[in-house]
Structure formats: C-alpha cells, structure tokens
Amino acid sequence: xxxxxxxxxxxxxxxxxxxxxxxxxxxxxxxxxxxxxxxxxxxxxxxxxxxxxxxxxxxxxxxxxxxxxxxxxxxxxxxxxxxxxxxxxxxxxxxxxxxxxxxxxxxxxxxxxxxxxxxxxxxxxxxxxxxxxxxxxxxxxxxxxxxxxxxxxxxxxxxxxxxxxxxxxxxxxxxxxxxxxxxxxxxxxxxxxxxxxxxxxxxxxxxxxxxxxxxxxxxxxxxxxxxxxxxxxxxxxxxxxxxxxxxxxxxxxxxxxxxxxxxxxxxxxxxxx
Length: 273
Known about the structure:
Blueprint: E1 3-5, E2 9-11, H1 14-37, H2 44-57, E3 61-62, E4 74-78, E5 81-83, E6 97-106, E7 109-118, H3 124-142, H4 150-164, E8 168-169, E9 175-177, E10 184-188, E11 205-208, E12 211-213, E13 219-221, E14 228-230, E15 236-238, E16 241-246, E17 249-252, H5 260-265
Antiparallel strand pairs: 1-2, 3-6, 4-6, 5-14, 6-7, 8-12, 9-10, 9-11, 11-16, 12-15, 13-14, 16-17
C-alpha cells in the first residue's frame, strides 16, 4: 500500500510507479512533439493547443489546466520569463528561447517535465545556458542514491552550474515530490549542501527542475499573478524530469528511454523496468 512518512511524503508501490511511468511517457512524447513544433511565427497558444490534444489523445488530462486557476495546458515561458508563462497570442521570433513545462495525469498519477527550446538560430550564450541547465538536471539525478538525501541532488546541480560559468540559480523556485498530486513534499532545491533533507528511498518520486539565468537569480511575478521573470531582464532556461530510484538505479519516468543513455554516460546505473 502507498504509505505516508517523513512529513507527508508519499511512498509509492512498484505498481504505482509503473502507473506514473505511463503518465511520464505521455509527458515525454508530448514535449518531443512540442519541441518539433517550435518555430518562428508559432504562438504559445498554438503550442498549448497541440499539447492539450496530444495529452487527451493519449488518454491523459493536462495537470496544469485549471490548477489554482491556471488557463493553459502547458507553461510557455519566453526569454526572461523563467517559469509559469501563460500561453496566448505571443508569436515566437527567431532568436527566442522558450521553456515549455508540461504535466499530465493518467489514472490519477502525474508526470511533470520541461524543456527549453531555441527558436531558430540563437546566441552562443543562449546555447550554453540551455546546455548547462539541462546538464545540471542530469547531474542532479545522477547524484541520487537509495539511502542518500534529497540535497545530494541539490548540491550536484549547484556544483555543476557554478563550475560552468557565471550563471544565476533561482532559489525561490524548486523541484518537488510528485505522485497522486503534481506538487508534494519534499522540496528539491537547486543549491545547497549535500546530506540534508529526507532520505531517498524506493517508491519516492521527485521532479528535478533547475531554473538558471544568464544574469542575477532575482525574479518578480508579473501582474497576471503567474509569469515569473528575471528582474534584470536576463535570459533564462528551465529543464525538468520526474524520476525515481529502484534497487537497480535511477529511472527517469518522463524520459522516453527512461534516462538510460544519459545515466550511462554519467557512469551511474539505470534502474528502469
């Protein structure tokens, strides 16, 4: 049975993790469809419609639509918009970068992931920002061990980002537990000392999502009460995957291959079924 321990943390059975994998695959395939749909001239609202159709056609329900009143099936955040951008009539232009955050519910279980995608040719600084952000996410996941602590992930993310150059790491927005709800305990910060926070145990599922900027990490929320932007106007990127630990290793539930390729490249065991 699913149990609750360590301040409300939800521990899933293997069958429940398998159900989360179904939701995760739907999120992963939807994000790949959206990645291929990004181009100059497309609106964030058009991307939202593509996502909504893909999620529903796949037997899921968008996690975000109606969440605390949110009006989109994805979050679409462009350039200095870090997260929680509301899709609408904004048309993408060459040189933009767009963070697309996608969540789906299948049979009561959630998947949550995000990618940042260039629109045509973008600056070298933007390319590096996206690469560092995505790689830091993978480094964080690769640092997780059964019996370890949640901030082992946080420390690995920060360590990689700091080693890669002068970037800002958002501190007010963090990763999270996930399962029968989209946002659950524990928080997964993208910075901090290792060896702290709840233990990583079998059946715990976490969404790891570094949010990195080319400038300072300070942000504000726009008048729409959702869109988070950098105060200094600097470019930002966001990468996210949902993963769990099995006795064999990490299993990235929202990656189409379960994260097998990237985990093996980082020298850690793949735990997928």
